[in-house]
Amino acid sequence: MSTNSITDPRRQNKILRYKPPSTETNPTLEDPTPDYMNLLGMIFSMCGLMLKWCAWIAVYCSFISFANSRSSEDTKQMMSSFMLSISAVVMSYLQNPQPMSPPW
């Protein structure tokens, strides 16, 4: 019986045929990285008003969000996140113009 199941062509077709899932029927396959980086950038921007390293992390997160975004996404939210992170860097250096000291 085991030799019969190996040579059965119906079984081989089921094994060899693969259909990748389509994104139209399953919208959960979209990449959430830009949204997460956008959220992290806004959080670090708020913390960056007091800490310079948080402001620079916010700029980094907004660049990652911009690089991973699609052209069909909302550009207003991305630009507001980017401007918020740049303003956090500017405000932190206006508050304390000394350069960042190394942590060691």
TrEMBL record:
Is Transmembrane helix among this UniProt entry's keywords? yes
Q: Which GO terms describe its molecular function?
A: protein folding chaperone
Q: Which residues cross the membrane?
A: 39-66, 78-95
For this record, an example GO cellular component is: endoplasmic reticulum membrane
Task: Offer one example of a GO biological process linked to this entry.
Answer: protein insertion into ER membrane
Q: Which UniProt keywords are present, listed alphabetically?
A: Membrane, Transmembrane, Transmembrane helix
- Source domain of life: Eukaryota
Question: Could you tell me what this protein is called?
Answer: PAT complex subunit Asterix
